[in-house]
């Protein structure tokens, strides 16, 4: 069978837009306009500019946390280069970091550890238009369509509230943005201005990002002065140890009674703890995670993410010389 160039073009064009359920897009517009009393023409014009990107579907289908060992993951986020970049960032914004830490009770190094893992201290904030990411995932990724449609609605609300250009903001393939990589719903819920003047700019103001990260952890019940994690070693063979949940449900003494020794021996046995097991290429690492470790996983639910934040934070803290 022969195809003309026009036929081939039309076939490809139809295939591109078949990736998005246009009926759902139309329903979304109607619902958003009704709920927010928004200008339908304006909302429709914004979404008409959104572009489906198959690359986004491909990436979210194989996130690093699900495909990497801890050994490989750590080599990306806990490096000498990233540690030095963090120290430079910390020194530049030391006043802001100290002030925010004193106000919230969240450790300075942990605030910076999150910004360091998320965006390399602002160096890598994402290359995808947030609009495209949320549009693609909301209408072309059925597995989590409901979540990303909700985030798209929050993004439209956010850009209207903060007078941001919805066509210009770039972020991750999942739609997270700014120094702190907040999703739109988190931006609306937890973003905080360092100067406490209302509007928070997480896209271009590091001070606001610092304040917002700390606020997020504080709201999720960060425990001031309490430990985050410590290495665990086995003094005897332990069998039938089931995978532990990240939120501590046992006491440290429950584990030490089994012969699992914490590297930090000053932590009271009554401290809530869980055992974190990280897979390497040829072995496993065992750590104690405390309640603050769990709080970090409220930012990203991966134990590897929380451990990377903790270890990068500790690396910066150990080399801080001012």
UniProtKB/TrEMBL annotation:
- The answer on whether this UniProt entry bears the keyword Signal reads yes
Signal peptide range equals: 1-18
> Coiled-coil region(s) at which residues?
none
Keyword presence, Iron: no
Q: Which SUPFAM superfamilies match?
A: Lysozyme-like
Classification via CDD domains: Slt35-like (cd13399)
The protein's UniProt keywords, in alphabetical order, are: Signal
Q: Where is the Transglycosylase SLT domain?
A: 23-314
Q: Which Gene3D superfamilies match?
A: 1.10.530.10, Bacterial muramidase
Q: Name one Pfam family in it.
A: SLT_2
What protein name is recorded for this chain? Murein transglycosylase
Taxonomy of origin reads: Bacteria, Pseudomonadati, Bacteroidota, Cytophagia, Cytophagales
